[in-house]
Specification:
Elements: H1 7-19, E1 26-27, E2 36-38, H2 40-48, H3 52-62, E3 73-75, E4 79-82, H4 86-98, E5 112-116, H5 128-146, E6 150-154, H6 163-174, H7 183-199, H8 201-216, H9 219-243, H10 261-271, E7 276-278, E8 281-284, E9 293-296, H11 304-318, E10 323-327, H12 333-346, E11 354-358, E12 363-364, H13 381-389, H14 394-406, E13 414-415, H15 418-421, H16 429-448, H17 462-484, H18 488-507, H19 515-538
Parallel strand pairs: 5-6, 5-10, 10-11, 12-13
Antiparallel strand pairs: 1-2, 2-4, 3-4, 7-8, 8-9
The structure holds arginine (ARG).
Length: 547
């Protein structure tokens, strides 16, 4: 028999060959229904006007699965149940064990994917929204890279805009050396500048003039602006390091890099009649809304929308991306809907390039209410990490946060309940870490006792079958996450695997068994450890050897 590494698709293909349609195999809901079920006979019977069980019997007679499955069974009104043969389960588990990618298949059509994530703002601390964006984007980067896609992270930091006028002016007024600030200090400065702006007309005028100087490239202004960026980046990088994410300075592509492109985009859109002057502003009307996209405001300034259009041109035209992913909070969904629409009309975003907005919900307090500090201000990312670290060691606290962030549908809000999130029981990150550490401990003991194991040879117990069956699904799950951008599917899978593993321990002694059964079980443990470790790594979670 050839490789069975992609067992689920192999089964589907065989059934489809006879049925003529995708059988939509589903994991069986109960052990007595085998491993997979399909309702394809019911669907075909409906179309053909024949009794479903007859259609099922015809299919079962023709489907060639003897090498992979036990004889197919027809259940209830005409479901077909598939039970994979034990030796095939053993083979697939062995293949996963021996595969350098743990069964993750390489994309047949590798794409160049730009993932826009994290993207905090200069002179402001990262808040919970940036926490989610960073964790989710990091997971996408890992998953897509594992599938062989070229991933280009783009950290679209807010390093340009009118706010720099007041920031620089405030620094000069106070005689501050901006290079001595830290991020918290820069944020405090931001508050003072804001207050100053509201209180003094004269300061507001100077701030406006300062924006003009910044845009004109005035040396002193640029120098201070750069200092603000540098202190902010130092703060962001410290947080990235703490979060153990892949982002580096090489991924920085802040708003300011598009400066020179903004008038070019505006002129292009205006020349081609895509943008029109409306109340003094240059705007594009789209089908998406009555509110047009503002390319240039009446005062002549270019804003967030124009910058994102320039970024799309860069990502498609220069970086040659054919898939754009934006991981940004749900409140910005409309902005991106509009930006994508304008970019499509203008041809910056050809049909062959997909653009996906991946929004995410809010992080709420443990009480399910809006999360804010006692003073009522937004919660900083670092204070969240601190709160989790009060409950557990840093690597466990981080696993807890990342898993909580990724394990339910991204669009949902979730409650930041540190105590629950760090628990090593239940559907948590630390539980998966613990499962990994525990299986590692068994393997370590075997090693210490000089018990060797290589292959899974005997697979007799249902609990062993279940573990092997799950191992065979890993590659498919990772593929689905890369396509649908739904990390909760991987989380759910890993939780199921960890649970199956603990059932296996209960029902099948490993070190206390003997001979071939023992070495086979140890090999099954090794394959499971490998998938747990790979899976956790795709979530950006460390898989500890001990816990
Ligand atoms: N800096 C923005 C914020 O903090 C997020 C930027 C998202 N990315 C983009 N291409 N607009 O809200």
């Amino acid at each position: 028999m050839g490789t069975v590494l992609s067992l689920p698709s192999l089964l589907s293909e065989r059934v489809a060959l006879v049925a003529g349609v995708d059988p939509e195999l589903r994991p069986a809901t109960r052990p007595q229904f085998g491993h997979y079920q399909t309702n394809v006979a019911l669907r075909l019977a409906n179309a053909e006007g024949r009794p479903p069980r007859d259609v099922a019997a015809d299919l079962v007679a023709k489907i060639a699965l003897d090498d992979l499955c036990e004889p197919l069974e027809i259940a209830g009104p005409g479901f077909i149940n598939l039970r994979i043969r034990a030796e095939v389960l053993a083979q697939v588990a062995n293949e996963v064990l021996g595969d350098s990618r743990s069964g993750i298949s390489l994309a047949t059509q590798p794409r160049t994917v730009v993932v826009d994530y994290s993207s905090p703002n200069v002179a402001k601390q990262m808040h919970v929204g940036h926490l989610r964006s960073t964790i989710i984007g990091d997971c996408f980067t890992r998953v897509l890279r594992a599938q062989g896609h070229t991933v280009i992270p783009q950290n679209h930091i807010g390093d340009w805009g009118r706010q720099f006028g007041m920031l620089v002016e405030e620094i000069l007024d106070e005689g501050l050396d901006a290079s001595t600030l830290d991020l918290a200090g820069a944020e405090a400065l931001y508050q003072r500048a804001n207050t100053h702006l509201k209180e003094s007309e004269e300061f507001a005028d100077r701030a406006r003039e300062r924006v003009v100087k910044l845009q004109a490239g005035d040396a002193e202004t640029r120098r201070i602006w750069q200092q603000l960026i540098d202190v902010s980046l130092a703060g962001f990088n410290a947080t990235y390091q703490r979060m153990n994410v892949l982002l580096t300075d090489a991924d920085l592509a802040g708003e300011s890099i598009y400066n020179a492109d903004l008038p070019v985009v505006a002129a292009d859109l205006e020349d081609r009649g895509i943008a029109v002057i409306d109340d003094g502003a240059l705007v594009v009307f789209t089908e998406k809304s009555d509110t047009p996209a503002i390319i240039r405001n009446a005062a002549g300034g270019y804003g967030y929308t124009c910058t994102d259009l320039a970024a799309i041109r860069h990502r498609v035209g220069t970086l040659h991306a054919d898939r754009l992913i934006y991981v940004v909070g749900t409140p910005q969904e409309f902005h991106f809907t509009q930006v994508f629409a304008v970019a499509r009309t203008a041809g910056y975003l050809p049909d062959a390039v997909s653009a996906e907005f991946v929004g995410f919900g809010q992080v709420l307090g443990a009480d399910g209410k809006k999360f804010s500090t006692r003073e009522g201000t937004a919660v900083t990312l670092n204070s969240l990490l601190d709160a989790a670290e009060e409950e557990a060691a840093p690597s466990i606290a981080l696993a807890a946060i990342k898993y909580a962030d990724l394990s339910s549908g991204l669009q949902k809000d979730y409650s930041f309940d540190a105590e629950r999130m760090v628990a090593t029981t239940g559907d948590t990150g630390p539980y998966l870490q613990y499962a990994h550490a525990r299986v590692n401990q068994i393997l370590r003991k075997a090693e210490a006792e000089d018990i060797s194991y290589r292959q899974i040879t005997v697979l007799a117990e249902p609990a062993e079958h279940q573990v092997a069956l799950l191992l065979s699904r890993f590659g498919e799950i990772v593929g689905t996450v890369g396509e649908t951008l739904q990390p909760h599917r991987l989380c759910g899978y890993l939780y199921e695997l960890a649970t199956a593993l603990s059932v296996f321990y209960e029902q099948c002694p490993v070190l206390k068994s003997e001979g071939e059964v023992r070495s086979s079980r140890l090999a099954l443990c090794a394959a499971t450890k490998k998938v747990l470790a790979t899976g956790l790594d795709l979530l950006g979670i460390e898989a500890p050897e001990r816990m």
